[in-house]
Specification:
Blueprint (H helix, E strand, L loop, with lengths): L1 H9 L4 H14 L1 H22 L9 E6 L11 E2 L10 E2 H9 L5 E7 L3 H9 L4 E8 L3 E10 L2 H15 L15 E6 L10 E8 L7 E2 L2 E5 L1 E7 L5 E2 L6 E6 L8 E5 L9 E4 L3 E6 L6 E7 L13 E2 L6 H7 L8 H8 L9 E8 L26 E8 L7 H15 L3 E7 L1
Parallel strand pairs: 20-21
Antiparallel strand pairs: 1-10, 1-18, 2-10, 3-8, 4-7, 4-9, 5-6, 5-8, 6-7, 11-17, 12-13, 13-16, 14-17, 15-16, 19-20
Length: about 425
């Protein structure tokens, strides 16, 4: 714009008129242009800051360990459910209250480190009852129990998915194969406990399944939760309708995977901005709120060598970095092969073929890890089946779980198909 003014001024022949017009323009428009240019530059800088999101800071690392092997002072892996750390004895009145509500109390959780298809055969025999004993501080009760798949950990993954959406972070499938191998022990016998009676031991006979069960196992992940008290007052947002809540941190958070849980106090976070030392949350609430902070802890180099550690971490590549910044999906077989070979902890599986078939009933070798991601446009029964065929040199109890992880991740890119996996 300044160059345009200079050009027009030079075309004015009368020097006095040129001088007068120049003084008017300098006084009236130069400051306006400088202000406008500064504001445009600030907006551009804000857009770049908001769009700069390092996906590595949101990698989820997982494992399963015995309670005896869990280190409570470690700074990397934490229980998915803090209740898992509580040991017997506990007050039997809690179970009595559940029985009074005509519900089945959960006495414990057990872990079966079996292949997906083997565990599926066990689940097909359920519901099934087993004998056992419940020893308390005052008595020994003969009981009947039943097994059922435990879904509490999957609900934690679903909660994490909701937080990703609420915090404007793109979702990636979580690889935590052990959580699908937990089953809960449900009490089927109604027992009348005495006052202050405490449960000290539970003995269960699972017959032929006893050889496969593992007790006192807890799943871990690199997510730590704690309350975050915001001391600042909310300020009106640009739209003059909602309010901005500024959460200030002591450190630079651009390299940290922080998620904010708005809880029941807020109608939801409308928008999230990540700056160097703060999160700016846009909400409809105009009062100071208490937030729950979910911290996704990045591992140290030594943490990556922990036994049985798995993650949804991707191999670093320019193509994937570029593709993750665009919403366009390349619908080719080559792109599917690229997606299948991205993950660091899935290198033992190699995608060798892809088939598209009409949907048929029957059992598949994989299961969906993103069942909570709802497709409100396409009808599941009308989808064709994309069968992804994998090869591997060694099969472990987790091979089909990792295969399920890969197919579930590819299904996010190709929602018009039902993606399943098969070992060849």
């Amino acid at each position: 714009m300044k160059e345009h003014w200079q050009e027009r001024l030079l075309k004015i022949g009368d020097l006095s008129e040129r001088r007068l017009l120049r003084s008017v323009l300098l006084a009236a428009f130069t400051d306006i242009e400088d202000y406008t240019s500064g504001q445009l530059e600030a907006i551009k800088q804000r857009v770049f800051e908001e769009s700069k999101l390092d996906h590595d800071q949101f990698n989820i690392y997982t494992t399963v360990v015995s309670i005896d092997d869990y280190d409570p002072i470690n700074n990397f892996l934490f229980p998915m459910d803090d209740e898992d750390l509580k040991e017997l004895p506990f007050d039997a009145s809690v179970i009595a209250e559940i029985i009074a509500l005509n519900e089945k109390p959960i006495l414990a959780k057990i872990y079966f480190e079996l292949d997906y298809l083997e565990l599926l055969e066990i689940k097909k025999t359920l519901p099934r009852r087993f004998k056992g004993q419940l020893k308390t501080s005052r008595n020994v009760h003969e009981i009947e129990i039943s097994l059922a798949p435990y879904e509490g950990y999957v609900k934690q993954i679903e909660k994490l998915y909701e937080l990703y959406l609420e915090n404007d972070v793109p979702w990636r499938t979580v690889l935590h194969p052990s959580i699908y191998k937990f089953m809960e022990i449900q009490l089927e016998t109604e027992i009348e406990f005495k006052k202050h009676e405490k449960i000290e031991e539970i003995i269960i006979d699972l017959e032929e399944l006893d050889a496969y069960k593992q007790i006192n196992q807890i799943p871990l992940w690199n997510i730590k939760t704690e309350p975050f008290n915001n001391q600042g007052f909310p300020m009106p947002a640009v739209d003059q309708v909602n309010y901005e809540h500024v959460l200030i941190f002591k450190e630079d958070i651009r390299e940290l995977g922080y998620l904010i849980d708005s809880g029941s106090e807020v109608d939801g976070i409308i928008h999230t901005r990540r700056l160097a030392d703060r999160l700016v949350l846009t909400s409809s609430k105009d009062v100071i709120l208490k937030w729950q902070l979910w911290m996704i802890v990045n591992p140290l180099e030594s943490d990556l060598y922990l036994p049985n550690l798995t993650s949804n971490r991707k191999e670093e590549s320019f193509i994937d970095n570029y593709a993750s910044r665009t919403s366009c999906v390349v619908r080719t077989k080559g792109e599917i092969y690229r997606l299948a070979n991205l993950f660091v902890d899935a290198t033992d599986l190699k995608l060798v073929d892809i088939d598209i078939n009409e949907r048929k009933s029957g059992t598949h070798e994989t299961y969906g890890l993103n069942s909570f991601v709802k497709d409100e446009i396409r009808i599941d029964e009308d989808k064709k089946v994309m069968k992804l065929k994998f090869a591997t040199e060694k099969i472990s109890p987790f091979t089909r779980d990792i295969m399920s992880f890969i197919t579930s991740e590819i299904a996010l890119y190709f929602p018009e198909y039902r993606c399943v996996g098969e070992l060849v």
